[in-house]
Design brief:
The complex is a heterodimer of chains A (174) and B (305).
Chain A lengths: L14 H19 L7 H20 L4 H11 L1 H10 L11 H4 L7 H4 L14 H8 L8 H31 L1
Helix pairs in contact in A: 1-2, 1-8, 2-3
Chain B lengths: L1 H21 L10 H5 L4 H14 L15 H12 L17 H4 L5 H10 L11 H7 L22 H23 L9 H29 L7 H6 L19 H4 L11 H6 L1 H14 L3 H14 L1
Helix pairs in contact in B: 1-6, 8-9, 13-14
The chains are: A mainly alpha (174), B mainly alpha (305).
Chain lengths: 174, 305
């Protein structure tokens, strides 16, 4: 059987390919590092999800605030876990570091906007607040930066989803 | 007094261009260049055109309605080297960056000046110049060496509101970008609905990641990938075994998959070779120590991607 046409040229630096590599790498580490295969499925999926976000953030690197926030979250997981246990309602003490601000779990929307005016620049009802909650690391940015971050985040998320879909398809065949 | 009047007239004309510049991010609303000019009394329109022909002879052949959202940014950078010498005394030459307007502290002269240099590109794109006439009277007292930005009719003329308006238009440009990213957002008008759509999209993407990770977790523990082999095997030839449908003697890194990764396209390998593929795959994977099995897996994975 002759192979069908191969695609002629790909960009080896495309986001998708980088994501794919990194994600596989993380998955592999996930399996090899922790030998707790007796974990429940829920925990494992959570780890896979973390691996997905981690690979996303790693590929993008420090270029974007959201990736920095995710990376910071991951690298300081231990500290944050302790933090969370101590006090659940944490108002971000590190407001002025945009890297840190996205990492602490927030219960009240006002905490995510260190400056009042960011809460409603459009005159839209709280949507921006919602967006800030969704996009990591976006709390210390004005509306312009927020829109930028959202665009980049959406693009990266979409690529990650595509990579994962392909992976799932691949696995489901076997 | 003559000089003052002269300045006033010129600033008035420049101001209209500046307004057209402000309107550039809303192309559907802006009337076309000459029909807008017709709103002006004829003599002023002619003066407008002539003054620009004189004073800006080496204008760039600007596109009439740049559709790109970053038109503001790109054109500002291109205007600077072509600014005509006539306007040097009127317009302060400084590095133009539309972003710097907002990032730096709201200095009244800077946005004014940067906008006035932008307008040279926009001389054909006067939106509704008639509206500016009314506002001239308000600003006659100012006689700075800079060109003033004229406010539109019925709007405040202080620098803060101008900067604010420019900022708002930048936000609108970003929103347009986002609209393109989010599928199905193009038809929605109004920031609120678009934002809703964006939020929904982000949430749906995050949920998708979660579901996919659940599925992956269910499948994943059966397979152990030795990624070192995958990474190292890129350059080598992986086809030590004849395998229908998966043959690719060329180096993998460049030829196996399209960046767009259309799922129907790579599925050829799956559909056609499914019966042949699964059994060798299983047998290979059960070894999971030899590089061959991993490289086969890699191959297929890359096909998929």
């Amino acid at each position: 059987m002759s192979p069908p046409q191969q695609p002629t040229s790909i960009n080896p630096n495309s986001l998708k390919i980088q994501l794919a590599y990194r994600f596989l790498h993380n998955l592999n580490n996930l399996n090899t590092k922790r030998s707790n295969l007796d974990n429940t499925r829920i925990r494992r999926s959570h780890r896979v999800k973390l691996a997905a976000y981690a690979s996303m953030a790693y590929v993008v690197g420090s270029r974007r605030a959201w990736s920095r926030a995710i990376l910071w979250k991951i690298r300081n997981r231990a500290v944050l876990a302790r933090f969370k246990r101590v006090d659940h309602k944490i108002t971000t003490p590190l407001r002025h570091h945009h890297v840190h601000a996205g990492s602490v779990k927030r219960r009240t929307p006002s905490c995510s906007n260190p400056k009042r005016e960011y809460s409603d620049p459009f005159g839209n009802s709280g949507q921006e607040v919602k967006l800030r909650k969704l996009v990591p690391g976006s709390s210390t940015m004005d509306a312009l930066g927020l829109l930028d971050e959202t665009a980049d985040y959406i693009k990266c998320l979409a690529t990650q989803v595509e990579v994962m879909k392909n992976l799932v398809d691949l696995y489901s065949i076997i | 007094m003559n000089k003052g009047e002269e300045l006033g007239m010129e600033t008035f004309q420049f101001g209209e261009e500046i307004q057209s510049l402000m309107a550039v991010v809303q192309p559907p609303e802006a009337g076309n260049s000459f029909t807008a000019l017709l709103e002006l009394p004829a003599n002023q329109a002619v003066k407008l055109l002539h003054s620009h022909e004189e004073t800006a002879p080496n204008n760039l052949p600007s596109s009439v309605f740049p559709s790109a959202e970053n038109s503001l940014e790109t054109t500002t950078s291109s205007v600077v080297p072509n600014s005509s010498p006539n306007n040097v005394n009127l317009v302060k030459q400084e590095p133009i960056d539309s972003d710097s307007m907002h990032n730096s502290s709201p200095n009244p002269s800077d946005p004014v000046v940067s906008k006035s240099t932008k307008r040279k590109e926009r001389e054909k794109n006067v939106k509704t110049s008639a509206k500016k006439i009314k506002s001239v009277a308000n600003d006659d007292g100012e006689e700075l060496p800079y060109v003033h930005v004229r406010a539109r009719r019925g709007q405040a003329t202080d620098s803060h509101s101008l900067a604010e308006r420019a900022r708002r238009e930048k936000i609108n440009a970003r929103m347009k970008l986002l609209q393109e990213l989010v599928p199905g957002c193009n038809k929605i008008s109004g920031t609120a609905m678009v934002l809703d759509e964006i939020i929904n999209h982000v949430q749906s993407l995050q949920r998708q990641v979660e579901f996919l990770s659940m599925r992956l977790a269910a499948v994943h523990p059966n397979i152990d990938i030795n990624l070192d082999n995958i990474f190292s095997a890129e350059s080598g030839s992986l086809m030590d075994y004849s395998f229908p449908g998966m043959v690719s003697p060329q180096p993998l890194s460049h030829q196996l998959w399209q960046p767009d990764g259309l799922i129907p396209q790579p599925l050829w390998g799956v559909e056609e070779t499914n019966p042949n593929f699964i059994t060798p795959e299983n047998s290979f994977l059960s070894y999971d120590s030899s590089g061959n099995s991993v490289s086969l897996y890699t191959n297929q994975l890359k096909m998929e991607l």
